[in-house]
Amino acid sequence: MKSFFSKFKNLLLIGAYKTLVIFEKLTNKGIALDFISKDYIDNPYKTYNLMRSHKPILFSQTTRLHWVTKMEFAQEMLRDKRFSVDDRKYPIAEKRRKEFKKAGREIMLEQFENPSMLKLDPPDHSRIRKLVQYGFTNRYITSLEPEIKKIVEDCLNKVHNQDSFDLIEDLAKPLPAVVIAKMMGLPNEDLDQFQAWSEDLLVGVGGIGTSREDIKKSGDAYEALINYFEEIILSRKNSPGEDFIGKLIQAEEEGDKLNIKEMYGTCLLLLIAGHETTTRLIGNGMFTLFNHPENMTHLRNDLTLIPNAIEEMLRYEPPVHATVRFAESDMIYNNKLYKRGTPFAVSIAGANRDPEANDNPNEFNIFREDIKHISFGYGPHMCIGASLARIESRIAFEALFERFKNLNLLDKNPKWGKNLIFRGFDNLQIKIN
C-alpha cells in the first residue's frame, strides 16, 4: 500500500511539473526550462541560448528561479554586494530549517547556521577566505606538481596494458581525490570511503528527479563527512602538522581564527569542490575533444596548447552550470522590480555562451583568444582552488597524449548525469589500442 501511494504521488508530481512546463512555454513564447527532458540533459545550451534571446533574466516556473544567462549581468551579480549568497537571511531559510528538523538532521542544521565561506557574504566571507588562503598560495600549489604527476602516472600504469579504460573511474575521479586527501593530510586508507561519501552527497545537490532515497543517502553522507572531519580535527588540535588541516588549525590573522564549525564546513567544501570540479573538467574536456577531432590533432601535436585548451573547455563545457544569489533588498534591476530575497540562478553555462562575451560561442576552438568564462566564479567568490584544478587537468591531458598514441571514444553517446548544478559523466570508456 505504501508503495502504491508513493507511485501515485510521483505521478501527481510529474503531472504538475508537465503543467508548469506548458504554462512556461505559453508565457515565454514557447521557451521553457524543461530540465527532465532528454533534449535538455543532452544539450542544455540550446535552452540557455533561447532563454537569453528572449529575456536575459527569465523566470522559470519549473525551478522557481530567475535565470540569468547574459554575461554582463552574471558577472555583476557575482561581484555586486546587492546580491547575496547567504540564504540564512531570506524566507527560504525557515523552510530549510523546518526540513532539517523534520528529518532529524541536527548536524546539517548546525552547519546551515555555520556555513562555509561559499555561503557567506563579506565581511564574514572575506575573514574566512583570508584564513583559508594560507593553504592555497601559488608557491604551495606549484610545489605539488611532481606529486600530481606521480599520481597521474600511477593511475595510468594500472590501465596501460589494457585495450580500454574508463577515463572517469580510472583517472578523472581518483586524481583530484588523492591530491586533496594528501593536501589535507588524510590517511590513504580513508580515500575510497570519503570518495564514496562525496559522490553520495552530490546526489542530493541539484539532482534532477531526486528520490527520497537519494535525498536520505545525500544527507547521510553529509553527516558522515562532518563527523569524519570533526574526529580528524579534534585529534590534531594539540599537534596540527604542516598539511592543509594543520594550517587551518593554526591559521590566524590579527587575532582571528576559524571556529570549529567553520573548519568542518571548510574541509567539506574543499573536498567536494576540489574533487568534483576537476573530475568533470577532465571528463567533459576529453569528450569535447573527441567530438572536435581537428582540435584533438592540434593538441596532440603541440602540448603547449593545453593551458589555452583547458580555458576553452571550461568555457564551452563547464563542470558547474549554475550558482544561486538572492536580492539583498528590494531593488530595481534591468528595469524590473525584485523583492528582497528573490532567488536568481546565475547560469555559468549560459553566460559562457553569450555572443556578447565570446564570438561564435557555440564553436569549440582551442586557439580562441581572450577567452571569457566564469566557470571558476567571479568576484569575491572566485574559486580558491582554480589554479590547482588547472594544474591537475593540464598534467592529466599531457600524460594521456604522451602515453597513448591512439585514443578513441568507445561509446559515442555516453549518458550525461542528471544534475542542474554539476554537469559531467559517471563513465567514459576510452579505447587505447
Structure, explained:
- This protein is an alpha+beta fold.
- The protein has a single domain (64-431), classed as Cytochrome P450 (Cytochrome p450).
- The protein has 19 helices and 10 strands.
- The strands form 3 sheets. The chain has a 5-stranded mixed sheet, with helices on both faces. A 3-stranded antiparallel sheet has the order 4-10-9. Strands 6-7 form a two-stranded antiparallel sheet.
- Strand 1 and strand 2 (65-68) form a beta hairpin.
- Helix 13 (212-235) packs across helix 15 (260-290).
- The longest helix has 31 residues, at 260-290.
- It starts with a helix and ends with a strand.
- The mean pLDDT is 90.
Secondary structure elements and pairings:
Layout: H1 2-27, H2 38-42, H3 44-54, E1 57-60, E2 65-68, H4 71-79, E3 83-84, H5 92-102, H6 106-113, H7 124-132, H8 138-143, H9 145-157, E4 164-166, H10 167-172, H11 174-184, H12 191-203, H13 212-235, H14 244-250, H15 260-290, H16 293-301, H17 306-316, E5 322-327, E6 331-333, E7 336-338, E8 343-347, H18 348-352, H19 386-403, E9 408-409, E10 429-431
Parallel strand pairs: 2-8
Antiparallel strand pairs: 1-2, 3-5, 4-10, 5-8, 6-7, 9-10
Helix pairs in contact: 5-6, 9-11, 9-19, 11-15, 12-13, 12-15, 13-15, 15-19
